[in-house]
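We close this part of the discussion by returning to an individual protein. The encoding preserves chain order, so positions in sequence and tokens coincide. The sequence in question and its structure tokens are set out directly beneath this paragraph:

===
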Amino acid sequence: MRLEIVDLHVSIDSREIIRGLNLAVESGEVHAIMGPNGSGKSTLAYTLLGHPRYTVSRGDIRLDGESILDLSTDERARKGLFLGFQYPVEISGVSFSNFLRNAYNIMNKSYQDKSREVFLTVREFHDYMKRQIDVVGLDGSFLARYLNEGFSGGEKKRSEVLQMLVLKPRFAILDEPDSGLDIDAVKAVANAINNFISKDTSVMVITHYARILRYLKKLDYVHVMANGRVVRSGGKELAEMLEEKGYGWIEKEVKDD
């Protein structure tokens, strides 16, 4: 899969947030998006999945060369896009395991991928989920709980990456999967990402800090967003520089431009 963002301009409530963003992610690559508050990172995540509040006024988003701007959120998900939310919503009455089983079966019908496992019984799928839940360090009883209801902040973050592991999307976007987590939870989330990374999947990690990136087994690019566009790209060393110097120098460079 190749995701290509071309001269993207995005507004919310008539206020432009993203101003000419260009980015390309190839299959098998891991990209980090960093930047100060208000730079457009979460706006980018929501726009990629087609959130109706965000309006694309110019530019394009392409999967394997085809525009997805006219596709609904569920159609984009069926094509392999996944978003791990920064603030997951609670859904009472829907058990975590039933939600994941239904979602997985829908994805299997959408993908033309014979390597995806087919589970004929609830027990088979439960055993599959149990293997994944062990990766993120959650108890098996977690699966019977209602989706995100009563979850702690750390459980919600682990829940999002657990969904990624179970559903096996082609392209995962994780919006601040490390925010508000202690060091053990950060390691657990990073471990889940490492288990997901393969030559056939791509990952975009949106974060303020370098610490989760240090635990990733693979990181191809770090991009810095400011004023609604990518202003600097590099490798892990760029993330460490931001950790040391903050974002003030980046914002100053953008202002000077």
